Amino acid sequence: MSRGEQDQISESQIASHWREEEFISPGAGFIAQANMADAKVLERFAIENYPEYFREYADLLTWDQYWHTTLDTSNPPFWKWFAGGKLNASYNCVDRHVAAHKNKAAFIWVAEPEDEQDRVITYQDLYVRVNEFAALLRDFCGVKAGDRVTLHMPMVPELPVAMLACARLGVVHSQVFGGFSGAACGDRIVDSGSRVLITMDAYYRNGDLLDHKVKADEAVAQAEKGGASVDKVLVWRRYPGRDSSPTPMIDGRDFYVDDLLKDYRGQRVEPVSMPAEAPLFLMYTSGTTARPKGCQHSTGGYLAYVAGTARYYQDIHPEDVYWCFADIGWITGHSYIVYGPLANAATGVLYEGVPTYPDPGRPWRIAERLDVNIFHTAPTTIRMLRKAGPDEPQKHNYRFKHMTTVGEPIEPEVWRWYYEVVGKRDAAIVDTWWQTETGGFIGTTLPALQPMKPGSCGPGALGIFPIILDEDGNEVEPGSGRAGNICISNPWPGFMQTVWGDPDRFVATYFEKYCKDPNSKDWRDWPYVTGDGAMQAADGYFRIVGRVDDVINVAGHRLGTKELESAALTVEAVGEAAAVPAYDELRGRVPEMYVSLKPGYEASSEVEDQVKSAIRQMIGPIARPAHVWVTTDLPKTRSGKIMRRVIASISNFMDVGDTTTLANPEVVDEVRIAVQSAKVKAGDVPKDLPESARAEIRQFGGDV
Ligand code: PRX
C-alpha cells in the first residue's frame, strides 16, 4: 500500500473541538458512606508501588493458598497474576458468605410479566442450587476441571447458578448472549470445544414467550458442520415441570434439568482449588476478522479485579440493593452482575425482559418496589427511557445513591438527564470505560474522590495508566485537542490471558502495533492497544471517541464488520459487501450494509431482504441492518480495500474527504446520490450528528 493510501485510512489523530464540560461533585451524603473515600488510595496505587498495589484487591478474596509472586512477566504478554496462589471462584462468591448472610438475597429475580411473582434466591439457596447443579454436571455430564461448557441462556437465576457450578468444578464456562442466533452459538461451541450445551426452553421478551430451545437445535447442527459434536443438551425450563417450547426434545441428547436434578437433591460438591491462572471463563467478542475471539479470563486475577472494582467503583455494600440492567451474556453481566457483586456479598436484582415493557415506567416501579439504590445501565437504555418517558422517574419514589453508565460514549445532554431526572441530582455517576478484554473498568472516576464530568469517563482506574499514542507511537499530549489510539501502558489482573486457542492472534491483535521489541521481557514495552480512539483533556480526564477498528458498537454491543459482511456474502447474488455504522438517536449506531452484486444479478428488494435475513440467522436480531444498499460498485483503494470510511460518511451525510487516491473515485458520487436521496425520501437524515459520532465515522476502518 502506498504512503498516500495509508494516510487516507489511518486517521486516528483527528482534531476534535469538544466543549469542555464543568465538573460536578457528588453530595456529602454519598461521600460519607462510600467504600473508598480516603485520598491515600491514590498514593497507594501510584506506579512506584506497581504491581504490589493490586494485593489490595486480591486480599478481598479467600485464598486456599496465598500466592508467591504478584506478577510474573517471564513470558510477555502472557502475564500471570498472583502466581502460586490457589482459590475457587464459586467458594468466594457463595460459600464464604453463607455463615454471615445465609438468609440475605443474593438475587431478586423479576420476571418480565408484571403479574408474575419475584423469585428471591438467598445465599443459602444459591449455595444449595450451585452444589446440586455442580453434582449433576460432574456425574451426569462427566465434565471436569479444564473442560469447556457452552451456555446459551437468557436472564434467569439459573444462568448464574450454572456459571458458578462450572466454576466450582474448575470447568471453563462460555456463555453466549441469549439473543444471539443458534448458528452464532454453534460457532462458539466449535471454537471452545464444548461437548455440553446448557440452555433454556423459553423466556419472555417484550410480552412474548420466545422459543429458545429451537436455537439449541440450530446450535448443535452448526457445531456439527464445524466438526464438533455435542453429547448433551441440558434444558432448564422457564416453568419447571411444564413445557414452554414447541420444539421437541431429542432422545438421548436433550434433558430437562428439573427432571435430572431430582437425583442430585442435597448433594454437595467440594470446590476444586484452582491455580490463580486457571481459566475461569471464555467470552467471545467481535474484532476485525469474521471469527469472534474467545477472550480467556483467569480465576485469581479476574476475580480479584472485579471484586475490588465492584467495591470501590460501584460502591456496593452488603446492605445495598444493586441493579445492573445489562445481560449476563455480556462481559458487564459476568463482572458486575455475577462475580464482582457476589464476591462482595451483594444483593442484585435480575430482570428478565426489556426496560420499556409494558411501559417506560417499569424500571422505576421495580426500583421503588425493591428499594434499589445502585443502578447500572448503558447509554442506549438511558436514551430509550428518556425518549419514551422523560418525566417517568419523577413519579416514582426511589432514591439512587449511585449510577453507572457503560458500553458507549454518552452524550453530555443524555448524561444530564440521567443525573438530574433519574438520579434526582443526588446520585453519584460513574461513566465506566472498559471492554470484554479488560475484565473490569479501566477508565472511570472513583466516585467519592474524583468529580464527574459529563461525557468523559474520567482518568484511568486505580492502578491503570492509559496513554494515547499517535500512528508513529508518540504520545499525544493531554490538552492538545487531538485524539489518538488509547492504550494501557501496564498489565493489570483483570486483563484477559489470551485468545482461546490462538495465542498468536492475541499478540497480533493487541500488542503488535506498538511493541518495539517482541523479545523484551519488560512489561513497559508491551502497551495494550484497546482499539478505541480517545482524547485526554488537560485535567487528565479521557473522552472515548469510539472504535478505530472495524467494529460497530450497536446499543453497546460489539459487531465486527467482517461478521456482518460474511453473513451478507452467503446470499447467492452478493459479490461484495461492506458494513458501516450509521448514527442512530437511540442505539448510538446501527449497521448499514453496502453490497454489490455478482454479474448477471439485478438489484431488487428481494436481495435486500435476503441480506437482512442472512444476518439475523447467522448473528442475531441485534445485528439487523437499518438499510441494505445495493450498488454497482464500492469505493476502493488501489490495493482493493473497500473504503468503509467513505461509505460511512455517505450514510451519515458527512463530507467524504479526499477521494482522489481511490482506484475508482467516480463511484463515490454515484453511491452518494443514490443513498442520500433514498434516505432523504425516507426521512432518515440525522439531525444533529454529535461530535463524538462525527469523530468516530471520520476514523472508521482505520488500520489499528
Ligand atoms: O468502544 C468502547 C465502548 O465499548 C467497547 C467495548 O465493548 P465490549 O467489549 O462489548 O464491552 C462493553 C462493556 C464493557 C469499547 O472498546 N465503550 C465501553 N464503555 C464505554 C465505551 N465507550 C465510551 N464510554 C464508555 N464508558
What does this structure look like?
With 704 residues, this protein is of the alpha/beta class. It is 30% helix and 21% strand. The chain has 21 helices and 30 strands. It has an eight-stranded mixed sheet with strand order 12-11-8-6-7-14-15-23, sandwiched between helices. Strand 16 (321-324), helix 12 (331-343) and strand 17 (347-351) form a beta-alpha-beta unit. Helix 11 packs across helix 12 and helix 19 (644-651) packs parallel to helix 20 (666-681). The longest helix has 17 residues, at 123-139. Residues 1-14 have low confidence and may be disordered. The structure holds adenosine-5'-monophosphate-propyl ester.
Topology record:
Elements (H helix, E strand, L loop, with lengths): L2 H7 L18 H6 L6 H5 L10 H4 L10 E4 L7 E4 L2 E2 L1 H13 L3 E6 L8 E4 H17 L8 E5 L5 H12 L2 E4 L6 H11 L3 E5 L1 E4 L2 E4 L1 H13 L6 E5 L17 E3 H5 L12 E2 L3 E7 L7 E6 L1 H13 L8 E4 L6 H13 L3 E5 L10 H9 L3 E4 L1 H10 L13 E5 L5 H11 L5 E5 L33 E4 L14 E5 L9 E2 L3 H8 L17 E9 L5 E6 L3 E4 L2 E4 H8 L5 E11 L3 E10 L7 H14 L8 E5 L12 H8 L14 H16 L9 H9 L5
Parallel strand pairs: 4-17, 6-7, 6-8, 7-14, 8-11, 11-12, 16-17, 16-18, 18-19, 19-20, 29-30
Antiparallel strand pairs: 1-2, 3-13, 4-5, 9-10, 14-15, 15-23, 21-22, 22-24, 24-25, 26-27, 28-29
